[in-house]
């Protein structure tokens, strides 16, 4: 009996070990699957059509039906456009410009900002069906007209813009993906349209925008005003969402380049090679679509598509200590031609800090200089006009080169700057701190702070404090929309007055919620991202801003419309937060199942044995000596004992 | 005792009621296509004795069994009558085309029906060697042959006419080949000749809508600045056809210009012609690299018909397409089945060698659209079957499509829609039958029953000869059935199969089995022992 028990125990143990192995294995498989799914979740873009096998293509020469061709010939007579070579260029209804701005940064890095702008004199808003595209990409045009979009701004950013080291970017963007859309007021069900739009855009840009849902979408009341011509500013038609987790890579760059009329075949876009662009400290690409005025009276509007790409190269570390860079070093390409479709194609190099070439040397030298008011400051640029053959010189290739002479010189502190962090300990509560710096020596100015916090961080608004210079700073406007669990995030918007030369600290406490087990991300111990806060401000300008929109200006200085001469609009994004939530051991349920099942089974087994076996008193076994003796006796042929 | 029903109730899946018996009936598809044919005798084709017997009606039926589950019955209801005075006037017009037009003005025959006018042998309407004229609408003119004069009774006359009328019907109305092709979704055919397969595969599958995209490919924007008035051309040439076909499907047109778009094949230089040539064999490789740039419509999921106009770059001009016999294709265009068409448009003739680049070039849209229109007809399945000898087919008018061609298309599209919808519905019912724990929501049940109802209506309308309604209902059926079939809640991967459910309980069941099995073994061995002992005792 004891031996039997023992063997049962051994078998059970073996089984348990086997089960545990199976369990661990299945966990691994599960994890693997999840990662796989995340990869797959980047949806197939509809623009990438599936390549079909060649065998299927049975191409046939077309035989034009006599009837049809004669019919077409009959039409020829009343058709106005005869075959001819035009002597004068016909009126083009769309216009394409491309531009590259290069700003040497004081940290030794290089900031390169590409802008491609297509302006199309067409009216999308009036319900007329627009379906014939020339320079404007068809895929975006169809999206705009189908979803009745008035303005669309989408950006994909890898890395964080370091304002204190690099100054202000021409176009700010938060880490990850950001999408904000103004719909036309004819849209009845904005939420459904928004959902469909994000799905289509995720296909076009090959990004995980399909993860935008009501839990990360907000309707800011004041921070995101339309940038184009729009009188209706009813924020019911605005949707804003960020995905701070989104990782930007080549698969996002390729569809972005495909929207350019010249693709990456000619013009400035030949420099956009992903192996170099993504080997950088900061990379941000964006698409902005908005209606703009055609002329000063603004009676008719055109549709503007701006594609921007900003990149900061860290040449200090890759350049083996030499401070010198060129187009070839940055992009591993040089320029040989401009895009033939572009009406203007220019490279600007910021030489404001280098009037006498004491800091760096620029070659080839260019006689063209241009001044522009950018971000409240008058800057001087050296300009290379790519539409002129002269620019390319005798070697038919342009490779702009900068050689530093001194490493000195310091940067003006940016007037507005912000940072954010999470404080507190433990996994129950915490505190979000937002610090906003006003570095202006004597002017105070107002800023709008927008915070969108996911529902699983439960903000306690009664703990909201705003202090500047040790004193309480009461916001003049607060818009707060509390969250609903699993439905919508917190939205907190406030208008703050920043005193001159001060740090304003905004703190708010929160509690971490416990999620359901399916709501955790595949790597829950990495933490959960909270999108950047957005600070929009009208910053006092040191020079008079130009308010004339029709004046020919470089593209990078005309993105945010300027209504007053004395100040300029600016947007600052803080760092995204990474917050740990209480995370359970996900293998626990299966462990528990296995363990309880085993215990139950063991209990059941013993009970079963107890119930089914009949117990008898057995003769005690003869001793070992007796048995051996018996064996010997058997061999000798003597009857056993 | 309480637990079992509770467990049963809580683990039950919701399954709405489906019209299973009606779906079963659909598995056996019995279609009857009815067409009304009117045969009108003009003055001088009948002798008075025969005239007394008319009007009279004949029905003519023909069975077409496709396979054991699908059978078709064609039914032609033929009415014979003499021409009215106004029709006589119309038939006295000098040319056939004019007669056709004025006959059309007199009475508009409904969709799917046909009128055949029998005209005397001496009529000047038709040229010498032509016996049958097929008009732009739903009328045909048929000249009686000399042998009919011998006919005494009307029956004899009709016997003489019958073969010719049949021939006309074969051209103008549904034919066996069309309907068989339309049923390809339902019935798997033994591959016939290569030619017929290519014919069947050329046209797009029936769909509620199509996106037509014209793309101008300019690989060399540095030399050529191309202008095409696609908006006007589409309005002038394509739109009339699409308006006419609006009953069959919805169409949307758009266009784009793609710069630096290259073909996938390097054309070969032919020094004898001082031109570049593309071989018919290499055409298949042309499309793939271009296709990546074409993009699909982001805003709809209808099939896209691509029409590409390729203007070769200055260094590779002129470019000609060669067919299999090394002959230049006169239209310089080709099409790919179920995909679209490509036309090569050479512009090197429009400027001299000393021209200053870039050259502005206006594209002759009439030439381009003639080719694209022909391709569009082919791809949409408008069959232009060769007319038998003695037939004269009127050139299609401004719409690019004759009424009877549209009818033919509608016949085959209705049958195709019905076939597709029945297969979708039956396979959906099969799937739901097989996987027992799929939830069937009310909306799916609703879609399924509406699809079944529309299908029944479509079949009934086909039987009654109302072609327009039949097509409408068949479209509704296909839409409802697809919607039900592709509903995300029917993903069978969302449901655990039973073996996986069992796997979860294995940690409980396996250890519990061990003592039971062991005791069973023991019992068996004991029983055997006992039996042996018994046998031993017996012995």
TrEMBL record, chain A:
Keywords: Signal. Residues 1-26 form the signal peptide. InterPro entries: PIG-T. GO terms for cellular component: GPI-anchor transamidase complex. The keyword Protease does not apply. It holds the Pfam family Gpi16. GO terms for biological process: attachment of GPI anchor to protein. PANTHER family: GPI TRANSAMIDASE COMPONENT PIG-T, GPI TRANSAMIDASE COMPONENT PIG-T-RELATED. This is Phosphatidylinositol glycan anchor biosynthesis, class T.
UniProtKB/TrEMBL annotation, chain B:
It comes from the Eukaryota. Keywords: Endoplasmic reticulum, Glycoprotein, GPI-anchor biosynthesis, Membrane, Transmembrane, Transmembrane helix. GO terms for biological process: attachment of GPI anchor to protein; GPI anchor biosynthetic process. The chain crosses the membrane at residues 502-521. Pfam families: PIG-S. GO terms for cellular component: GPI-anchor transamidase complex. It is found in: Endoplasmic reticulum membrane. Pathway: Glycolipid biosynthesis; glycosylphosphatidylinositol-anchor biosynthesis. InterPro entries: PtdIno-glycan_biosynth_class_S. Its main location: endoplasmic reticulum. It is a multi-pass membrane protein. PANTHER family: GPI TRANSAMIDASE COMPONENT PIG-S. Belongs to the PIGS family. This is Phosphatidylinositol glycan anchor biosynthesis, class S. It comes from Cyprinodon variegatus.
């Amino acid at each position: 009996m004891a031996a039997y028990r023992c063997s049962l125990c051994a078998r059970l143990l073996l089984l348990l070990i086997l089960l545990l192995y199976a369990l661990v294995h299945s966990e691994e498989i599960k994890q693997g699957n999840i990662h796989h799914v995340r990869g797959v979740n980047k949806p197939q873009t509809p623009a990438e059509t599936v390549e079909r096998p060649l065998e299927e293509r049975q191409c046939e020469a077309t035989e034009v039906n006599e009837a049809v061709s004669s019919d077409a010939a009959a039409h020829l007579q009343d058709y106005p456009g005869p075959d001819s070579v035009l002597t004068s260029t016909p009126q083009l209804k769309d216009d394409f410009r491309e531009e590259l701005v290069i700003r040497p940064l004081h940290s030794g890095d290089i900031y390169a900002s590409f802008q491609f702008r297509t302006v199309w004199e067409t009216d999308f808003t009036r319900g007329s069906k627009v379906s014939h595209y020339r320079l404007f990409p068809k895929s975006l045009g169809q999206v705009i007209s189908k979803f009745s979009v008035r303005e669309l701004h989408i950006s994909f950013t890898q890395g964080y813009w370091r304002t204190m080291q690099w100054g202000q970017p021409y176009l700010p963007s938060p880490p990850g993906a950001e999408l904000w859309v103004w719909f036309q007021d004819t849209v009845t069900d904005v939420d459904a349209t928004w959902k469909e739009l994000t799905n289509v855009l995720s296909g076009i840009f090959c990004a995980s925008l399909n993860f935008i849902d009501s839990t990360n979408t907000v309707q800011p009341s004041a921070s995101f005003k339309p940038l184009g011509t729009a009188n209706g500013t009813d924020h019911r038609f605005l949707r804003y969402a960020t995905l701070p987790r989104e990782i930007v890579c080549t698969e996002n760059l390729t569809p972005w380049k495909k929207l350019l009329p010249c693709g990456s075949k000619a013009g400035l876009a030949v420099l956009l090679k992903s192996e170099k662009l993504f080997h950088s400290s900061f990379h941000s690409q964006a698409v902005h679509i908005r209606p703009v005025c055609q002329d000063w009276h603004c009676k008719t509007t055109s549709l503007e598509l701006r594609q921007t790409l900003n990149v900061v190269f860290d040449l200090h570390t890759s350049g083996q200590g030499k401070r010198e860079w060129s187009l070839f070093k940055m992009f591993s390409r040089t320029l040989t031609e401009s895009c033939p479709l572009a009406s203007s194609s220019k490279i600007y190099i910021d030489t404001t800090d280098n009037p006498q070439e004491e800091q760096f040397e620029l070659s080839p030298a260019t006689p063209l200089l241009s001044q522009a008011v950018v971000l409240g400051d008058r800057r001087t640029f050296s300009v290379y006009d790519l539409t002129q053959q002269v620019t390319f010189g005798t070697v038919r290739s342009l490779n702009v080169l900068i050689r530093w002479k001194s490493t000195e010189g310091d940067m003006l502190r940016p007037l507005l700057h912000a940072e954010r962090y999470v404080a507190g300990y433990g996994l129950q509560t915490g505190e979000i701190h937002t610090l906003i710096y006003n570095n202006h020596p004597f002017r105070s100015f107002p800023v709008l702070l927008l915070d969108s916090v996911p529902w699983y961080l439960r903000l306690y608004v009664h703990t909201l404090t705003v202090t500047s210079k040790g004193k309480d700073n009461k916001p003049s406007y607060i818009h707060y929309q509390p969250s609903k669990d699993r439905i919508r995030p917190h939205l907190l918007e406030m208008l703050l007055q920043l005193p001159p030369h001060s740090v304003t600290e905004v703190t708010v406490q929160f509690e971490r919620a416990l999620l359901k087990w399916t709501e955790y991300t595949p790597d829950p111990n990495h933490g959960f991202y909270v999108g950047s806060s957005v600070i929009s401000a009208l910053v006092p300008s040191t020079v008079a801003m130009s308010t004339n929109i029709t004046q020919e200006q470089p593209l990078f200085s005309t993105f945010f419309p300027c209504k007053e001469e004395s100040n300029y609009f600016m947007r600052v994004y803080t760092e995204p937060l990474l917050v740990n939530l209480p995370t359970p051991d996900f293998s626990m349920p299966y462990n528990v199942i296995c363990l309880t099942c085993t215990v139950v089974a063991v209990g059941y087994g013993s009970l079963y044995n107890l119930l089914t076996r009949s117990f008898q008193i057995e003769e005690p076994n003869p001793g070992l000596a007796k048995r051996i003796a018996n064996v010997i006796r058997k061999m000798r042929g003597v009857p056993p004992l | 005792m309480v637990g079992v029903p509770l467990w049963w109730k809580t683990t039950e899946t919701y399954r709405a009621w489906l019209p299973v018996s009606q779906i079963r009936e659909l598995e056996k598809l019995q279609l009857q296509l009815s067409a009304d044919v009117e045969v009108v005798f003009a003055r001088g084709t009948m002798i008075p004795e025969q005239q007394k017997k008319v009007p009279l009606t004949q029905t003519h039926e023909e069975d077409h069994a496709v396979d054991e589950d699908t059978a078709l019955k064609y039914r032609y209801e033929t009415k014979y009558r003499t021409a009215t005075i106004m029709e006589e006037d119309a038939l006295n017009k000098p040319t056939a085309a004019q007669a056709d037009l004025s006959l059309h003005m007199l009475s508009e025959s409904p969709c799917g029906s046909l009128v055949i006018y029998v005209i005397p042998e001496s009529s000047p309407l038709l040229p010498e060697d032509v016996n049958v004229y097929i008009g732009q609408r739903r009328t045909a003119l048929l000249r009686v042959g000399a042998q009919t004069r011998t006919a005494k009774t009307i029956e004899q006359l009709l016997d003489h006419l019958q073969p010719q009328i049949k021939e006309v019907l074969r051209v103008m109305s549904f034919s066996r080949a069309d309907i068989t092709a339309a049923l390809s979704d339902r019935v798997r055919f033994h591959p016939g000749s290569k030619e017929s397969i290519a014919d069947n595969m050329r046209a797009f599958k029936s769909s509620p809508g199509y996106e037509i995209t014209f793309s101008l490919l300019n690989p060399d924007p540095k030399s050529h600045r191309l202008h095409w008035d696609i908006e006007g051309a589409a309005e002038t040439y394509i739109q009339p056809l699409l308006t006419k076909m609006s009953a069959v499907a919805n169409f949307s047109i758009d266009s784009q210009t793609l710069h630096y778009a290259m073909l996938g094949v390097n054309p070969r230089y032919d020094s004898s012609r001082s031109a570049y040539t593309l071989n018919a064999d290499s055409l298949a490789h042309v499309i793939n690299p271009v296709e990546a740039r074409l993009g699909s419509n982001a805003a709809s999921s209808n099939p896209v018909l691509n029409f590409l106009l390729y203007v070769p770059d200055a260094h590779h001009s002129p470019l000609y397409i060669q067919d299999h016999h090394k002959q230049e294709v006169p239209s310089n265009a080709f099409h790919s089945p179920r995909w679209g068409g490509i036309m090569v448009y050479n512009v090197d003739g429009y400027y001299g060698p000393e021209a200053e680049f870039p050259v502005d070039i206006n594209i002759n849209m009439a030439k381009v659209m003639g080719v694209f229109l022909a391709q569009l007809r082919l791809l949409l399945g408008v069959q232009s079957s060769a007319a038998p000898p003695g037939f004269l087919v009127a050139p299609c008018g401004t719409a690019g499509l004759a009424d009877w061609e549209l009818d033919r298309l509608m016949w085959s599209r209705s049958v195709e829609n019905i076939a597709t919808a029945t297969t979708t519905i039956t396979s959906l019912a099969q799937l739901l039958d097989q996987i027992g724990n799929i939830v069937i929501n009310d909306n799916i049940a609703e879609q399924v029953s509406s699809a079944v109802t529309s299908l029944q209506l479509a079949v009934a309308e086909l039987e009654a000869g109302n072609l327009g309604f039949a097509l409408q209902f068949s479209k509704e059926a296909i839409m409802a059935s697809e919607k039900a079939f592709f509903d995300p809640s029917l993903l069978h991967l969302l449901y655990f199969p039973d073996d996986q459910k069992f796997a979860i309980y294995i940690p409980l069941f396996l250890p519990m089995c061990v003592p039971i099995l062991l005791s069973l073994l023991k019992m068996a061995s004991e029983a055997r022992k006992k039996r042996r002992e018994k046998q031993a005792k017996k012995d």
